[in-house]
Design a protein that fits this description.
The protein contains 13 helices and 23 strands. The N terminus is likely disordered. The protein starts with a helix and ends with a strand. 29% of the residues lie in helices and 22% in strands. The chain folds into 2 domains: 217 residues, Alpha-beta prism (UDP-n-acetylglucosamine1-carboxyvinyl-transferase, Chain); 214 residues, UDP-n-acetylglucosamine1-carboxyvinyl-transferase, Chain, CATH 3.65.10. The longest helix is centred in the last third of the chain and has 14 residues. It is of the alpha+beta class and 449 residues long.
Length: 449
């Protein structure tokens, strides 16, 4: 069934580009005001939604007015499985089903662009005694999900999916035929998080063995922290993780913190426009998931940060930044280094497995604006003190919202036409409204890659 579905609905594959490409025409502009509201952390939000869905009670998630598209995808898929949502204006109320209350979706669970939503949903549906089909957009279809699928196969879950470029959709038919799993954590922490959350409701201890050197450790740590807040008891040793039998009981009201990774964009905007920018909802370092590293280095970019306000008023220095736990920062940080003191971004080999090969696509993004970077085995080395120039053709963003958001900010200084007019909505729906001159959506004649 899955292969036939893929044949009918599959992505068009590498090398294809439509005859006309939607894009943003960005004109040189400033930031519209001094205040910058960071979006909610989608890493927190998607996991919290999942944990609330695993509870049969009502819970409120607060601290935000709008969901990004990734969180909207998770909400939509959970709704299809029987979870109820209502808007609160300052958040959402969720009435979960408990692990035994989910029902079969009448249609495909479409995770959009969200790798986190897709992988958590694969773990969830692998526990259910009926067939579920999960899918995503063209970017998600071109990402490799074999790490999680291999782990689920060893648990006796029936899986059916395509091959090569057609990695989605995936048919999943649970439940698990055991409580002991093996997962590779060297490329992403999401498969590990998926298995952790999927252990809810098991009648005996769940044991997860990890292979490889862990990356994005703060994200898997977040999963464990949130599970423990919901009543899980977890023992972690060097060899294995043991989760005692648990049911999900989240707080009745749960605040979602700001997204620490999004702090990179007001820092880049401040460097570009030389405008002071006040962060209205600063990120607590404890919730920043490794992205607090930005504040460790912000003064090296020639930017001061005091009383929640960024000011471009200093001398920049060369830096060497380890992104093992913060590879999402790669595109905006690369631009920041090129325009300030330069340096090295390392420890980010797993960024090759994101929406795009983020190391290669970040280099190409910089080149589009006349900036240079050298690819290293685990990141980029970048000369400082470079000067932007206006791109002479459409700026490709590779379906990657962090590439698109970086490109838009660079284009506020040079002007440019940037592919993917709505990619920013994945994480920050209000991103474009901060610009003094709103970019115009246009269609650009495509060129075959």
């Amino acid at each position: 069934m899955a292969k036939g579905w893929v044949k009918r609905w599959g992505a068009q594959g590498k090398g294809h580009r439509p005859s006309h490409i939607p894009a943003l025409q960005v004109h040189p502009t400033d930031i519209s005001n001094d205040d910058w509201v960071l979006p909610p952390s989608k890493s927190h939000l998607i996991r919290m939604m999942h944990l609330c869905a695993l509870s049969p009670n009502k819970h409120q998630l607060t601290g935000f007015s709008k969901l990004g598209e990734d969180a909207e995808s998770m909400k939509r898929c959970l709704t299809q499985l029987g979870v109820e949502f209502s808007d609160l204006g300052h958040g959402i109320e969720i009435t979960g089903t408990g692990i035994s209350g989910f029902h079969r979706s009448p249609s495909v669970l479409h995770a959009g662009n969200s790798g986190t939503a897709l992988r958590l949903l694969l773990g969830l549906t692998s526990r259910l005694p009926f067939v579920s089909m999960s899918d995503g957009d063209s970017s998600l279809r071109n990402r490799n999900h074999s790490t999680l699928l291999d782990a689920l196969s060893l648990l006796g879950v029936n899986l059916s999916y395509g091959v090569e470029q057609e990695r989605l959709p995936i048919l999943v038919h649970g439940p698990w035929q055991g409580e002991e799993a093996i997962v590779d954590v060297s490329k992403s922490s999401q498969p590990y998080s998926s298995l952790l959350l999927a252990s809810c409701g098991l009648e005996s201890d769940c044991v997860i063995h990890k292979k490889g050197v862990s990356v994005s450790r703060r994200h898997s740590g977040l999963t464990i922290e949130l599970m423990e807040k919901c009543g899980a008891t977890i023992e972690i040793t060097e060899e294995k993780t043991i989760i005692s039998p648990w049911t999900s009981n989240p707080p009745s009201k749960w605040n979602v913190p700001s997204d620490g990774s999004m702090m990179s964009f007001p820092i880049l905007a401040c460097l570009l426009t030389k405008q002071p920018i006040r962060i209205e909802n600063p990120v607590d370092a404890n919730d920043a998931l490794g992205h607090e590293i930005l504040l460790d280095y912000v003064s090296s970019f020639g930017i001061s940060y005091y009383d929640s306000t960024l000011c471009c008023d200093g001398t920049s220095d060369e830096v060497d930044i380890d992104l093992r736990d913060a590879n999402d920062l790669l595109p905006p940080l690369a631009a920041i280094l090129a325009l300030s003191g330069g340096g090295r971004l390392r420890g980010a080999a797993h960024a090759k497995h994101k929406e795009s090969n983020r190391i290669r696509s970040t280099k190409k993004l910089l080149e589009a604006f006349g900036l240079t970077a050298n690819i290293e085995h685990d990141g980029l080395s970048i000369e400082g003190g470079q000067t932007l120039s206006m791109p002479d053709s459409l700026v490709d963003t590779y379906g990657d919202h962090r590439i698109q958001m970086t490109a838009v900010l660079l284009a506020t200084q040079t002007g440019a036409t940037v592919e993917g007019p709505s990619l920013h909505r994945i994480a920050d729906p209000e991103f474009l409204t901060r610009l003094s001159a709103m970019p115009t959506e246009v269609l650009v004649k495509g060129i075959q890659r």
